[in-house]
Amino acid sequence: MNDLSENLNSLKTKYREIFKNSAEEISKRIEELRPAGVTGEFPCGNRDWDDAVLKMFDEEISRDIYIKWQEILAYRKMFSCNRCATCCNLACSEFSPEVLKKKAENGDNFATQFLSVFVPYESKEEARKIYPEYIKMLEDNKEDEVYFYHCPKLSDCKLCTDYENRPQICRDFPDNPLSILPESCGFYEWKKEVEPVALLCHSMMEIIEFYKEKICTFYQD
Ligand code: SF4
Ligand code: SF4
Question: Is 147 helix (H, G, I), strand (E, B) or coil?
């Protein structure tokens, strides 16, 4: 197995462990809010309990996540792009060019910016020439369909031909430490250091969404 696949599998294992601990922690906090005399699994139709839990999600957990994420982004400023050009040469999206175009037409800001920078590769094989380990990792892990893009402003000697005027999307990358980065990336150490906190935040957000949906479904049924 190549290193990237090992990294991805190790990330998934870490995430499962963190997710399990977060789920236990949140479940404990929900129990602590159970009103006296109320029995049964949450949610059970007691509005006071629902309100107390939703308040705890919004005013405590979501706030903590927000603060942690701001700290992660602030720490990112200690690192910088070393212009290895990997992210200019190979950008991936779960969306095809056609879907991105539709999203942009519907006002999606990210899709608009992405399409203003990147053009699609002719084929996966073209992309494989740029970063074979990454493509192999996606294949090994049978990830959902991924589309590959590159920036035509990159020169043959792997330099941005308009670096001073590069768009915001380029300046901000990588803005999520859970992105897969090559070791050549100047933000690789940042990613490694903040990854556990980012995984914790991600797990907390997923669990909160799960409970919110559970509450909605309970009252719809
Ligand atoms: S505009 Fe420059 S920095 Fe941005 S992706 Fe293209 S080559 Fe890279
Ligand atoms: S992969 Fe990282 S170091 Fe390389 S060009 Fe992109 S942001 Fe810069």
Answer: strand
